[in-house]
Design brief:
The protein is mainly beta and 664 residues long. 3% of the residues lie in helices and 56% in strands. The protein folds into six domains: 2-129, Immunoglobulins (Immunoglobulin-like), CATH 2.60.40.10; 136-234, Immunoglobulin-like; 245-347, Immunoglobulin-like (Sandwich), CATH 2.60.40; 353-453, Immunoglobulin-like (Sandwich); 459-558, Immunoglobulins (Immunoglobulin-like, Sandwich); 565-663, Immunoglobulin-like, CATH 2.60.40. Strand 21 (276-283) and strand 22 (290-293) form a beta hairpin. Residues 1-25 have low confidence and may be disordered.
């Protein structure tokens, strides 16, 4: 295996030499670049997420013009160090391997350009990304005989050996999944091979099973891990032969409960060896068996369930609840034959009686009227603890009054103003509920009492913008609101905008002379740095009676005005043109959320020539024709700049693309 790795290393080194020769064309022999890593290995090994640090040694006669670091298809501009005069050595970059990288080899190098336009390429350093495999567990066993059994309340130890030849072992965890042993281990490791003997004390039980779980994590960013389970029998006997013992903790035997009452039943289950797994119960009036799956399985557990005393029972009638438990053994030992009985007595239902004294049913009201909802509630067997008001129909609201201390008879008084948002023909429906302090919290209800609204509110409409309209940063939202009233004239119009952080607009226009109908335009200018999102516009109007009308809300969108993208498709970068000739520069531009309005192309060196085309398209490819002066010399560089501008309110400009041609 070692010989194969050495051969692979030699092949990659030869490839790097060939690659360097190919890249140095045209090259300048007065310069040399040497790329290296801290280990000075010909081939660097790494794992996903690693940070590989490079150094660069530069030999030459003058500062370099530019430098680029390449790692396969990824590259970084490192031109910030080229102004130094060689020779020098400098740390250039830290290349981070992608955390999800597969096993592969990445070729890394540096390419520099000299002041006279020549190119120099460094040696190539291959970075081999290793396959991320989980650690290997070599040993996981009880190291005393017998290896599959432990003695109650006695010490024992487990030997663990593991290795990871890639990243090393990062962490080791060892614990009992059945929670019979409280001791848990979690060791942070940083080595290729790991060995340790872990000490425990067996639980004090006659029989049963502990489930020792071992997890070994590697030292990678993903924290890959492998898991194994070791089962150890207590005293050599994993199972018992008896079902858990169950008892009722509450309520007590022969307790009185109300018909319709929801009662809580608490049971306790104990097992002298195994863990309590499930609890079952059924009632004499409902033979269906219900199951409680014990979440925290222990030898002693307490669980609670509830039942509702059915209306089918008679006053004074006895009924029973039956319950039993099962352990974690297989086969199970619990059954109906082990069930324990709880006897209870059902008493007649006592429902609070509620009276609404005022207002009377079908009362006519106007917008703005103030009314009082009054009455009382009575309970014969218990006390009233809470009274609630419920309003539904054209207006909904709930109010609550706590009676402290609870009373057998309690009065109520809720004050209420008819909302200005209602109109003629609307109806409010009133109910009052009273709750007693029984365990079932029985509720009595009075109602319905109906209030009929006879006044009419204004009608309001948002004319513009329409639903879903799109706005861009720095744009202006013009909101046109129209209001009219058949009853009293309009006195004011208001509008509100919200929905994006930093935007909360409120504005009200008060009419100097109230009118039956009126239209108002509100404006709001968006910030230049507004976030993307949705804005909700609402509007309302008040008449002389303060009756309030509201418009249906309108939702608009705010989207980022993304810059357009410009690129040169022809001629190729660094290609040759003839002095005294013309060449066609083909430019493509596109915009993802608005329109491309303008494309500009300019020769900026060694002569100047600017051209511009106006378009109005999402994307387009255009041609600019330039003339090359006949006084340019061979190998002289022609530098061109290209950019695009969109049609948004901000006139966003794309990144400037700099292109280069050479004179033949």
């Amino acid at each position: 295996m070692k010989n194969i790795f050495i051969a692979f290393t030699i092949i990659l080194f030869l490839l790097s030499c060939i690659n360097a020769e190919i890249d140095n064309n045209p090259s300048d022999t007065k310069y040399s670049l040497k790329l290296s890593v801290e280990s000075n290995d010909l081939v660097v090994t790494a794992i996903p997420g690693d940070n590989v640090k490079f150094s660069l040694s530069v030999q030459g006669v003058a500062p370099l013009k530019s430098m680029v670091f390449y790692a396969d298809e990824i590259f970084f501009d490192i031109s910030g160090i080229q102004n130094k005069t060689p020779p020098y050595k400098v740390d250039i970059t830290s290349f981070i391997i992608d955390k999800n990288s597969p096993e592969k080899t990445i070729l890394c190098k540096v390419v520099a350009e000299t002041m006279d336009g020549m190119f120099v390429t460094s040696n190539v350093i291959p970075v081999k990304v290793l396959d991320m495999k989980p650690p290997v567990i070599i040993k996981f066993e009880k190291d005393q005989s017998p290896v599959d059994s432990i003695v109650s309340d006695s010490p024992f130890s487990i030997l663990v050996e593991a290795q990871d030849l890639n990243t090393g072992i990062g962490k080791v965890e060892l614990f009992d999944a059945n929670n019979l042993i409280a001791t848990k281990y979690s060791d942070n490791i940083s080595e290729k091979y790991f060995s340790r003997r872990y000490n425990f004390v067996a639980p004090k039980m006659n029989c049963g099973v502990v489930q020792m779980v071992l997890r070994v994590y590697d030292n990678s960013y993903q924290q890959n891990f492998v898991e194994k389970v070791l089962l150890l029998k207590i005293n050599g006997h994993p199972f018992d032969e008896d079902a858990p013992v169950l008892s009722f903790l509450s309520p007590s035997q022969n307790s009185n409960v109300s018909i319709g009452e929801k009662i809580d039943i608490t049971v306790k289950a104990e097992d002298d060896c195994s863990l309590v797994d499930k609890i079952y119960y059924f009632t004499s009036f409902d033979q269906q068996v219900y199951t409680i799956d014990v979440v925290n399985k222990k030898r002693v557990v307490e669980e609670m369930f509830n039942i509702t005393v059915p209306d089918s029972l008679k006053d004074g009638e006895e009924f029973s609840i039956y319950s039993w438990a099962d352990d974690t053994n297989n086969p199970k030992h619990g059954s109906k034959d082990n069930a324990v009985e709880l006897k209870l007595v059902a008493l007649g239902r006592d429902i609070p009686v509620v009276y609404i004294s005022s207002p009377s049913d079908n009362t006519s009201v106007n917008v703005g009227d103030k009314i009082s909802i009054t009455g009382n509630a009575i309970s014969n067997r218990y006390q009233i603890k809470e009274i609630s008001l419920r309003m539904s129909g054209s207006y909904t609201e709930t109010r609550k009054s706590i009676i402290s201390p609870p009373q057998a008879s309690a009065t109520f008084n809720f004050d209420f103003t008819i909302p200005s948002t209602l109109k003629s023909g609307d109806q409010i429906v009133i109910y009052v509920d009273a709750k007693d302090n029984s365990s079932s919290e029985t509720i009595g209800t009075a109602g319905p009492v109906r209030l009929n609204v006879v006044s009419k509110r204004p009608e309001v409409q948002i004319i513009s913008p329409s639903e879903g309209t799109v706005f861009y940063p720095s744009g202006t939202i013009s909101t046109v609101v129209f209001a009219q009233s058949e009853n009293q004239p309009i006195t004011s119009i208001s509008y509100h905008i919200e929905g994006i952080e930093g935007i909360s607009v409120d504005d009200t226009y008060v009419l100097s002379s109230p009118q039956k109908s009126f239209s108002k335009t509100f404006t709001y200018k968006l910030m230049d740095d507004v976030s993307e999102g949705q804005l909700v516009i609402t509007a309302s109007a008040l008449d002389k009676d303060n009756a309030k009308g509201e418009a249906n809300p309108v939702t608009v969108k705010v989207v980022d005005n993304i810059k357009p993208i410009a690129s040169v498709t022809s001629p190729a970068y660094n290609s040759y043109v003839d002095a005294g000739s013309t060449f066609d520069l083909i430019v493509r531009a596109e915009d993802k959320n608005s329109m491309v309005a303008e494309i500009d192309a300019s020769v900026i060196s060694p002569y100047t020539d600017s051209k511009k085309l106006l378009i109005n398209k999402k994307s387009d490819e255009v041609t600019f024709t330039f003339t090359v002066p006949d006084n340019l010399v061979s190998n002289q560089i022609i530098t061109i700049q290209v950019y695009a501008i969109d049609d948004s309110s901000m006139s966003n400009k794309s990144e400037v693309v700099q292109w280069r041609l050479r004179v033949r």
